[in-house]
Amino acid sequence: MTETQVRKTRARSPEDREAERERLCRVAARLFVAEGEAGFSMRALAAEAGCSPMAAYRYFETKDDLLAAIRARGFRRLADALESVAAGDRRRARDIGEAYVRFADENPAEYRLMFDLSQPDEARYPDLVEASQQARLGMSKYVREMVEAGVLAGDPELLGYVFWAAIHGLIVLRLAGRLPKDHDFETLRRTTLGALMRGLRAGRLRRPRWRPPCPSTGR
Predict the structure, then answer these.
(1) Domain limits at 57?
(2) Fewer beta carbons under 10 A from the terminal one: N or C of the chain?
(3) 50: left (phi over 0), alpha (psi -120 to 50) or beta
């Protein structure tokens, strides 16, 4: 990169710089998934993004900084997608699930990095911590509303994790190509979440537990 090009890069507006960070995050997410964390390098990112390594380092000092930025960006966008579902809608539970799946479908590389990789020093990245908590609350908020409305029974936070684990597991299986060929993803998703809803519904009738008959009375 020439000195003139460097000056132009440094003279970019904040909006331009943010757009370039976003672009580098998208390119890096694809490379991380394709090459693995060990095979990824800032030089490879620069080559794929069409910029110099120096330019890439200007936005991210280390590979860990870049990974944290990618994951935080993904969690923020997931949280925004969940928040966009209208509150109070009678179909909100279904719409939340569809919004979650749609995000994973549209951002498979980011989705994998958000959950497949963990960073031991996540506390160093407050943006990542805040974004992941925001996404988690987006998944559990509607469950809490259903508990408060008497639709579901149980600890809202625990139930939120149960629903999240179910839908996340299905998505991971699909991304890995491990779902059965004779059942489409949407049928599996609706069946799984429907079974959870029925099983956790408040006030549902419970069958009495079977007990062996008393020898003296036969009852």
Answers:
(1) 12-61
(2) C
(3) left
